[in-house]
TrEMBL record:
<protein>
    <recommendedName>
        <fullName>ADP-dependent (S)-NAD(P)H-hydrate dehydratase</fullName>
        <ecNumber>4.2.1.136</ecNumber>
    </recommendedName>
</protein>
<comment type="subunit">
    <text>Homotetramer.</text>
</comment>
<feature type="domain" description="YjeF N-terminal">
    <location>
        <begin position="10"/>
        <end position="216"/>
    </location>
</feature>
<keyword id="KW-0479">Metal-binding</keyword>
<dbReference type="Pfam" id="PF03853">
    <property type="entry name" value="YjeF_N"/>
</dbReference>
<dbReference type="Pfam" id="PF01256">
    <property type="entry name" value="Carb_kinase"/>
</dbReference>
<dbReference type="InterPro" id="IPR036652">
    <property type="entry name" value="YjeF_N_dom_sf"/>
</dbReference>
<feature type="binding site">
    <location>
        <begin position="434"/>
        <end position="438"/>
    </location>
    <ligand>
        <name>AMP</name>
    </ligand>
</feature>
<dbReference type="InterPro" id="IPR004443">
    <property type="entry name" value="YjeF_N_dom"/>
</dbReference>
<keyword id="KW-0630">Potassium</keyword>
<keyword id="KW-0547">Nucleotide-binding</keyword>
<keyword id="KW-0067">ATP-binding</keyword>
<keyword id="KW-0456">Lyase</keyword>
<comment type="similarity">
    <text>In the N-terminal section; belongs to the NnrE/AIBP family.</text>
</comment>
<comment type="similarity">
    <text>Belongs to the NnrD/CARKD family.</text>
</comment>
<dbReference type="InterPro" id="IPR000631">
    <property type="entry name" value="CARKD"/>
</dbReference>
<feature type="compositionally biased region" description="Gly residues">
    <location>
        <begin position="382"/>
        <end position="397"/>
    </location>
</feature>
Amino acid sequence: MIRAHSVESVRTAEAAAMAKLPEGELMSRAAHGLAEVAAARLTDVEGTTVVGLVGAGNNGGDTLYAIAQLAESGFASAVVLVPSAGRSGVHAAGLQAAESAGAVVHVAADDAQDAVEATAEADLVLDGIVGIGGQPGLRPEAARLVDAIDDDAWVIAVDLASGLDPAGEAGEDDAVWADETVTFGTPKPVHLLPAGEAATGRLTVVDIGIEVDDVPATVERLTWDDVARMWPVPDRGDDKYSRGVLGVVAGSEAYPGAAVLCSTAAAEAGVGMLRYVGTPTPVALVHQAVPEAVVGQGRVQAWVVGPGLDTEADTAEARAQLAAAREALASDLPAIVDAGGLALVEGRRAAPTVLTPHAGELARLLTRLESAPAGTDDRTQGGSGAAAGTPGAGGPLSGPADAGTEVTAADVKADPLRHARRLAALTGATVLLKGATTLVVTEGEPVRSQADAPPWLATAGAGDVLSGVIGSLLAAGLSPHDAASLGALVHGVSADRASGGGPLRALAVAHGIRPTVRDLLARGRSAPA
Ligand SMILES: NC(=O)C1=CN([C@@H]2O[C@H](COP(=O)(O)OP(=O)(O)OC[C@H]3O[C@@H](n4cnc5c(N)ncnc54)[C@H](OP(=O)(O)O)[C@@H]3O)[C@@H](O)[C@H]2O)[C@@H](O)CC1
Ligand SMILES: Nc1ncnc2c1ncn2[C@@H]1O[C@H](COP(=O)(O)OP(=O)(O)O)[C@@H](O)[C@H]1O
Ligand SMILES: [K+]
């Protein structure tokens, strides 16, 4: 698992480490690690010239010492001092080290043209303008230099790409776009969140000896090695019931394929048993595609509600299916609610719940729930009574300050984390917000952020597959947070393997789940203890 820590936690850990080490040791370790990566990359890109853009803080200090090391190694090295105070505005000892090693020094404020030219000519740029002490955005003097960077230059962000919000909360267009980021001690939230991930590029963490293992993370990312640790593997005492039965209420006469995709994925994920509830066309298709499935209601350990569900359909069979969906939502069993099922969500469920909207669905759901008149108290799912909303639990539909205004898909895309948090707070559910980076938000837990899939996964039906995988994990007893994030990981890896760099169809992702889980489990078995 990759764990990212808040700036505050990093500062505390750094202070503790610094108290035990000689002065300047942490910066020296950071600069050394940075210079090693920079030297390797100069070799990779067959480059000879490096420039460091140096800001007022310790981020600039790291950069100056790294440039000193690169100059000593024989690379043509320069620094551009960004602050208006010039030499007196940057880390003094670092500047002296860089100069003594032979780096050329340009002061942007005094000699703007020279500084811009030195920046434009470099094969490799170290962005040391600002690190975890920075405010989001670039000041004009910094922006001018960043604009001058050659498109072909390799850009390494020091700790984080300058201009980004270190917390990864605020989206920022005005930032360095790095090919690579070399960070120190531990990743920061911005490296893993949609607001900063693309501008971060490849991420390397340099160990500088700070201790964060026992410090709660702000953002986490599951990696391949977590699958063997978390996946529910049956043992000799298990039978199909003890492993977990999944009920699937999905598909409709309008969208029968969703039932097939969801059920196939659940079967591929190795669910103990699958019960399918639907209308005649998807029933026939599920029978054919997933002969393992049993049709009709019965005892289950968890529900998938909603992929391909047509909440407008009005035949007797469709009404019976919708009643089953409402009953599932009103039950005290874990449920994952997707697509059409989201339209049936009225507020809090008492039982463990995963909601899996894409941006448009999240916007619609937030708008509807936040505009529900206060005091309307039918917060049961479909009103059948078993799991009434939790009275007094913070006023489930009272919502945050911006309640009542319409939320659009564009709002959600511009600030995905904040909106996912809003829905999690409003419903008490785990919210999995789909996208190139999929966010899993549960109140009181570190955000999980998964980016395992290629853009080819943006194809109809891919979400139906995801719901089947997560459903099977819920049925096996995983928490909503683990089921959602582990499901997203395996779904993304399956997509990546099935794509192999080319087009993808959802059914291929579903059929890839079984070999993907098998191989990731085998990887765990062969890993050193
Ligand atoms: N602590 C440690 O032990 C270790 C820390 N390490 C390193 O230190 C870094 C943190 O250093 P830090 O705290 O000095 O802050 P940092 O980000 O360099 O600069 C803040 C200054 O920049 C300015 N500024 C602000 N916003 C701006 C903007 N948008 N655009 C332009 N300028 C802006 C503002 O100055 P102002 O101009 O306002 O006076 C502010 O004071 C960390 O990321 C890591 O690299 C490593 O060496 C390992 C050991
Ligand atoms: N650009 C992208 N890169 C990687 N994965 C993506 C991208 N866009 C969407 N996805 C993933 O594709 C799936 C799409 O799901 P969804 O929109 O629900 O499709 P459908 O409703 O048609 O099944 C989600 O798992 C989502 O995270
Ligand atoms: K930086």
